[in-house]
Every structure is written in C-alpha cells, then in structure tokens.
Amino acid sequence: MTKDTETLIRLPKRKQSSHDCLIKNSGCLWLSLTSVFTIVLIACFTLLWVYISSGPSRDPGSIVQRLFFRVKAAGTNVKQECAITDERKFDCHPEVGATKSICASRGCCWKPTTPSASNLNSVSSVGVPSCFYPLNYTEYHVGNISRTSDKITAFLSRNTSSYYKEDVKLLKLVVTYESSYRIHIKIYDPLHPRYEVPVEINKPAKIFGSSSAASSFDIKITESPFSFQVYRKDGHVKLLDTSVGGFIFADQFLQLSTLLPSRYVYGLGEHRATLLHSLNWTRVTLWNKDRPPVEHSNLYGSHPFYLVMEEDGRSHGVFLLNSNAMDVILQHAPAITWRAIGGILDFYIFTGPSPANVISQYTELIGRPFMPPYWSLGFHICRYGYKSVNQTLDVALRTHAAGIPQDVQWDDLDYSYGWMDFTYDAERFGDVPGLARTLHDMGMHYMMIFDPGLSNSQPIGSYLPYDYGMELDLFIKDNVTGKPLVGKVWPGTTVWVDWTHPKAQKYWTTLVTGFHNQVEFDGMWVDMNEPSNMVNGAVDGCPKNSSLENPPYVPAVHGGSLKFFTICPSSTQYTSSHYNLHNLYGLMMTKMSHNALLNARPNQRPFVISRSTYPGQGRYGGHWTGDNAATWHDLYASIPGILNFNLFGIPMVGADICGFRMNTTEPLCQRWYQLGAFYTFSRSHQERDTNSHDPTMFSKTLIDSTRKAYLLRYSLLPHLYTLFYNSHTRGETVLRPLFFEYPKDKNTYGIDQQFMWGKCFLISPVLSENTTEVQGYFPKGSWYDIQTGSQQKSNGQYVTIATPLDKINVHLREGCVIVTQTPNLTTTMSRKNKFGLVVALLDDGKSEGELYADDGKSADSIQKSKYNRILFSASKKDRQITSAVDHLGYHEDMVLGNLTIFNIGTKPSQLTVNGVLCNFTFSQNQVINVEGLTADLKKRLTVKWT
Ligand SMILES: *[C@@H]1O[C@H](CO)[C@@H](O)[C@H](O)[C@H]1NC(C)=O
Ligand SMILES: *[C@@H]1O[C@H](CO)[C@@H](O)[C@H](O)[C@H]1NC(C)=O
Ligand SMILES: *[C@@H]1O[C@H](CO)[C@@H](O)[C@H](O)[C@H]1NC(C)=O
Ligand SMILES: *[C@@H]1O[C@H](CO)[C@@H](O)[C@H](O)[C@H]1NC(C)=O
Ligand SMILES: *[C@@H]1O[C@H](CO)[C@@H](O)[C@H](O)[C@H]1NC(C)=O
C-alpha cells in the first residue's frame, strides 16, 4: 500500500474529530465570554480557527462565525481587496448553495449575481461567481527556494487551513527545464507520497543543460503569497500567471487558476462543443462517462490539455497530468481554473511556437500515435442488430456489388452467446470463423467488439474468462468486502478486469489469443470501458461512509455523483482506488488489447478502437466519438470532435457515419457518407432498433455519390498513409484545423465546419439539409479542386462553392505534390495498382511533397527499415518535377502510371518523363494529364516540359 491510500483512509477519523470540536467550541465560546484567563482565550481561538477553516458546511448564521469575522476584518482593508471586475472574479464557492455568511467564513468577497451562478448545475455557463477570492488571499508562502542550472525547487507552506479538509500544509515545487520548449512544473506533498498517474511519460534522455539561458521561456516565482508566471523571453508574453489567487492543495481538492494570454483556447475534452472554446464561464468536467455525446457534459474520455493561440499567432500548450475527476473553468479574464479532486499538480508547458509544434511536443511526452495497418484506412461497416453471420456477410457482398470500396466488416455483440466476451452464438453465429475466412478471401478484414465487464453468473467451469480471472484474483474489488465488485452490463451481472493487476496482461493475452485461434479477427473494438455500468456503483450499492464516494467537492459530473452508471469510486484496484484510476480504464484496456493482438497475430500491426480515452492512448489505438445521433447537428459536431482528438494525439478517429441512434434520413446520410469518407477512421454504424443504413439501402443517387466519395478517398490513401507516418514519427496531426496551417490568419481561429488533411487538402462539406452550396473559407492563395483542377484564388475570404448532391469539396493547396493510387474495392487490391502524381504548381517557388510506403501490415516496418520514403519537388519556372529516394527498404513494385499538373500556364509544346516524350492532354483549366506511364517510383523521376 502506498502512503497515499493511508491518507485516504484517515479521512473518516478526521471527520469524527471535527464533530468533537463542534461540541467543545460551544463550550469554549461561553468560556471566552465569561473568563478573563488569557490562556483559555488562546486555546479557544485556536479551536475556533480549526473549526471555521475546516469545513464548508457550517450553520451559516452562527455566532461563532460573526465573532470570527469581526476579528479578521479588523486587520484588512476589505473594500479594496474585493474591488474586482466581474471577469476577474475567481469562484471561492464552487459548490451549490453559496450564501453571504458561508462565503464570509471562507474569507472571501460576496456580491450576489443573478442567478447565483455556482448554483446552476450541469449548464454550460457557471456565470459570474457571487463568492470570490479577494486580492492577496491568504495561501502558501515560499521558503527555501533554490535554483540550479536545470531546476528550481522550493517549499511552499501555509499555516492556516483552507476551507477543505486535509490541507497539505507543506508542498514542494519543482520546476524543470526539460528542453528548450518544455517546462515541467510539479507541486506535490514531499512528506506523504500521493497518487500519481501511472502512465508512461517520455522523460528527457538528459536534462536540458544551461536552463533558462537557452530556453525560449522563463519562470518568475512570487514568494508571498506564492504564485508563478511563465513567460516567453521574447516579447514577454505571459503564458501562465497564477497571481489571481485561489491556490488550494487539500487531499480532495486541488485548485489552481491562471490568466491566459488570449481568448483562443482549444482542447480540453472529451466534450461536445465548438472547436474554439467559449470563455463565457464555461465549465468542462472530466470524468469518463458512457453518455451519448451532448453539449456541456462529461463524456467518454478525459484530456486535461489545452492549446492557446496567442495574439501574435504563436501558440503554446498546457497539460495537467492528473487523472482524478476535475472541473476546468474558462472565464472572460481570460483565465482558466483547474479543480481536481485528487492526485497532485503536475503541469507540462509546451512553448511551440507553432500549434503544430505544440502537438508534436505534447506527443513527444505522452507518446506518438501508432502506425495503423493500411487496411484500417479503408471503409468500415458495422451495425448492432445483425441477426446472423449471413447478414453480416451480406452487407459486405452488397456493398462490393454496388462498386463501393469496403475493407472492413464489423460485428457488435450480436455475435456473442448471451452477450459474453470470448463466446459466439452457435446458432446464429456458429460460422463466425468461416465469416472471418470468407472476408479474408475477399481481401477484407474483420473486427469484433470486446467489453471489459465479464459475466460472473455462469456455472463454474463453463466460462473461462471468469474462472481464470478468479484464479488470478484480478477483478476490481468492493472496498468493504474485499470480494469482486459486482455490477451489471449486457450479459447480466458482471465483474471488471483490473488492468493495473500485474497479471492482467497475461490474462487478457491468453483470452484474446485463445479466441483468435477460433476466429481470426483482425482487430479489437473495445467498448463500455469508461467503465460503463447499468447500475450505479454496484448491484449492492457503494459503501456509504467513504470519503471517496462522497468527496467534499464533486465536479459537475453527469448524474451528480461519481458512481453514476459506473463502478463505485471507492472500489479497490491493485495499485490504487478506482477513484484515482477511473479515467485510465479505457487507456489501459486499449494498451493491453494492443499487446494481446501482437501476440495473437505475430508481427501484424494491431488495430484497436476504443470508446474511452486518456492522454497517451494514441500510441495504442484510435477512437470513435461514441453514440451520436442521426441529426444534422451531429453531422457538424463530428468535425470539432475529430479535430480535437488530433490535438489529443489520437489521430485515428471518426464518428458513426449516418448517426448511431435514431433512424437516419437519406439526405442526411448522403452528406454524411461524403464527409465520413474524409474521417481518418471511416465507419458506418448504427443502433439495433434502426433501419439498416449501409449505402446500398438507399436510392441510386446516394449509392452513386457514396461510391464517388470513397473512390476519391481510396485514390488518396497513399497520401493519408504518409500523413500517418509523419504522425507516428514526428507527432504531426493528420486531420487538422485550418489555423494549424495559417496561424497568422485570425479568420481561421474559429473554423470548425471545414478541416484539413495534413497541410495540403481543405475539406469543405455540406452540413445542412436542402443545400447545394457551401460557404467555405479559403486561406490566402490558390486552391485546386482535386476532381477538376479548377482554380480557386483567394485573398483569405469566404467563397460560395456549388456543391451538388454528388460532390464533396476537396481542394488541393498550391505548392503541394501528392501521390495517389488507382482505387479498387479493397486496399488489398488497390495496393497493386499504379500510382499517380498530382502537382499544384506555385507561380513562384517550389512545390513539394513526399510519399511513405511499406507493406502496410508488418509491425516492424519502420524499426527494420522496410519502407520507402520518396521526396518530390516541382517548379513552374524551371518547368520540371523531380523526385529523390530518401529511403529505400521496401522492394515491391511501385509504378507511376499517371501524372496531373495544375496551374501549368500556357500549353507546353512537349513533355518528357525520364527523358521519354509523352502524350498529354491540356485543358482550359491549365491542367495537364499524362496517362499510361510505367515509371519506377523507386528510382529518381524527372519530368520536364517546354
Ligand atoms: C497584494 O500584495 C502585493 C505584494 O505584496 C502588494 O503589492 C499589493 O498592494 C497587495 N494588494 C492588495 C490589494 O492588498
Ligand atoms: C454568456 O452566457 C450567459 C448565460 O448563459 C448568456 O446570457 C450570455 O449571453 C453569454 N454571453 C456571451 C458573450 O456569449
Ligand atoms: C446462411 O446461408 C446459408 C447458405 O445460403 C444457409 O445454408 C444457412 O442456413 C444460412 N444461415 C442462417 C443462420 O441464416
Ligand atoms: C479500501 O480502500 C483503501 C483506500 O483505497 C485501501 O487501502 C484498502 O485496502 C481497501 N480495502 C479493501 C478491502 O479493498
Ligand atoms: C425506425 O423505423 C422503423 C420502421 O421503419 C421502426 O420500427 C423503428 O422503431 C424506428 N427506430 C427508431 C429508433 O425510431
């Protein structure tokens, strides 16, 4: 047991003693008024202080408090300290039920606002707080500060109590300059180790040497009261400034507020919201929760990370490595408040300066995204409610029959027997092994779902996953009985795998491999891993007297309590309480599934898609945005959703195409297949009680437009795959907001109805009904419709683009060279086709591009250098395109079959490829097309025209 857990169990005892104090206090008060003995007075005031400052739930009108406040007020100038503009007020009473007297008992300022903001639960805006911190609110003071070249350490102490129980009165602050762009600020209890998030963090190989001298930032520490500012050396932009007060570090309440240098804040999820956050007293609650995505609610994952665009177009990011439930408040100041109910304060600040740099610096720390298998970039179809193996297979057959590419067919829990993991229903899905083989014969792949809750009610000896888990003693335990905690999921009563148990990996690998020996599935879909429960806490309820069940401050979680449709926070996992580990449950399941797949399918790249996520998960798998609905609003919301996950280092992400819940409509579904064809993870999926919405269920118009969109996607897959390589090796985003490419153009900061693929493609989908045009923003420059080559020149403006029903707008940016490949019904087949080269010439300057290629499936392609990387360069002025083979390690044929050049100007009289004269077509759009080439892409390429 760690010291931390001791701290946690001590709490109830402490509660006991504060009750004792209540009784003594009344006696003391009487004594103090009637006795003249100084010593008694001192004793009483000490007790009073302890009493008043220890609990938030006092009788508001008590004589004790009034007495205290006269004493306190005497020494300070209350008026001046409370003269704070609304936007700079920081909430001193975030719980429901603030009153003037309770506020005064906290030593805070009171000015009621209507409606009293903090009293509103589960709304978007918490509003101007009525009870707020005065300036120079008594907090921690710095002692013993020491600076070395790479580190600052200091002790922070407070001799008063905050109004939360169990203040940590002595803290240690360690500031480490980890690199020229990364600073680590850790505030923790040096005497009693507390829970820290057990995820792998890539620590710098060696501490960045000459500290502040070589770094782009510096930190200033104010000693009394303690605060710090992190600022850029150049221009002195303050990235963080905690001098606004309200710093508290108690056992179950850790709070830190900082001013922000601008109003452009992104990240902080998983939440459904616009990409650019509103600072209108917005509350973002993090506590992993199975809840169909709606605004203003905690959802499936937790990502305590934000990115800010500064006024001058530079960018920085902040990550709070803390996995406890928390609220994050954004207010107009502009400012942010972190309010977590456990752990420590462990901040990493990334100084960019470009937003792309920030994300790369973030994933350098938490882990780069995994390299996906090529087939996973194809089209996926799934539904809940297939009644038999035949129905599942039929979907793939009819999709291919309609000429629509599809790589992956999925099964939801339908395949299982009694909804139990690692079983299949002998009657309806008896031939699921045959299904997997048939799909493989078609060049396709097969995905199956797995849940972490396992049935505990099967006859002994009949359900290995339970029996084996009991044998290893690795299910999460009820904290009172010490027996496996029992809740309820699809198969009835269930127990949950404790992924922190030392044998969990061995257990999961054994089950996955054993099942894979029967059914050759290609990847794992891990669901219900928030974890989701169909009862609150456990079938027998949760312990009543646990401080983990009833923390003094409960973030604004959906349902009002931590246990709401999940397991008891007090339940026991091997390394800590579920209270601490809850938000990591999906991450750990994803990691163990990834590793299990590596064992079941040796040297095949694992593919795992998870509903619940936490930072660092991108290295093991991807995500879908959960149980969305078939509405136009959900169609739009998918864009900020997928963009955010690229910021979170999980670029393999998509939303259920056409909507999971509700019957979709053809107009919606038609536009959704077009947008969905540009998600990185492109899957159609739906709920059991809905009419099938795979493409062939609709009219020819929808089938045709869907085929067209996916043929376009498939032709661009070599480029998408290259983006994933850059994500995996350098931490680049795959899908990205426009401002990543145009950080100086503030018009792009709020755009979330369009997005980019890498730096070269701008996607502008139709997002509303009965519309055949899009108002799209085109950053300054020339853009080329990838399907026609027609040029869109822009000075940085909105443009109306005609978008008939069969079209999605995909524009190639000037200066880009991209590689395509003739599409086919599966990537297995399309990978054998010829490549194409598309060049968007700049009027002036070099166009550039690159291609990464490998066998698309080996786990060790990069490690063992079994890949090719080819760089392209083109110039309008020099009238030529050339390539250079940067790396050659993959020796399959790679033949260039065609070439397209946009913006070539006047018609050339002749064109040669590798010195050979070629026929070409020239269109009015100034587009050159060359077909029928057989150039080897693995050799240097030269195209010239005159
Ligand atoms: C807060 O403290 C600072 C530094 O000690 C001091 O300069 C300032 O006047 C104080 N502000 C108020 C309102 O007391
Ligand atoms: C902020 O939120 C409040 C309450 O929801 C609303 O009345 C107000 O209009 C909002 N202000 C802005 C600038 O959005
Ligand atoms: C599936 O189709 C095969 C061949 O058409 C048929 O023999 C079998 O009975 C079907 N199974 C189910 C469960 O419908
Ligand atoms: C109950 O929880 C505490 C704190 O997390 C832990 O120390 C203790 O071992 C748990 N007891 C059982 C029976 O799981
Ligand atoms: C979808 O429509 C079918 C009838 O076409 C109906 O039976 C079903 O209940 C509908 N589902 C939902 C979720 O409305």
UniProtKB/TrEMBL annotation:
One of its GO terms (cellular component) is endomembrane system. PANTHER family: ALPHA-GLUCOSIDASE, GLYCOSIDE HYDROLASE FAMILY 31 N-TERMINAL DOMAIN-CONTAINING PROTEIN. CDD domains: GH31_MGAM_SI_GAA, GH31_N, Trefoil. GO terms for molecular function: alpha-1,4-glucosidase activity; carbohydrate binding. Keywords: Disulfide bond, Glycoprotein, Glycosidase, Hydrolase, Membrane, Transmembrane, Transmembrane helix. It is found in: Endomembrane system. This is Lysosomal alpha-glucosidase isoform X1. GO terms for biological process: carbohydrate metabolic process. It comes from the Eukaryota. Residues 80-135 form the P-type domain. The chain crosses the membrane at residues 28-52. The gene is LOC106174580. The keyword Transmembrane helix applies. Belongs to the glycosyl hydrolase 31 family. InterPro entries: Gal_mutarotase_sf_dom, GH, Glyco_hydro_31_AS, Glyco_hydro_31_C, Glyco_hydro_31_N_dom, Glyco_hydro_31_TIM, Glyco_hydro_b, P_trefoil_CS. Its main location: membrane.
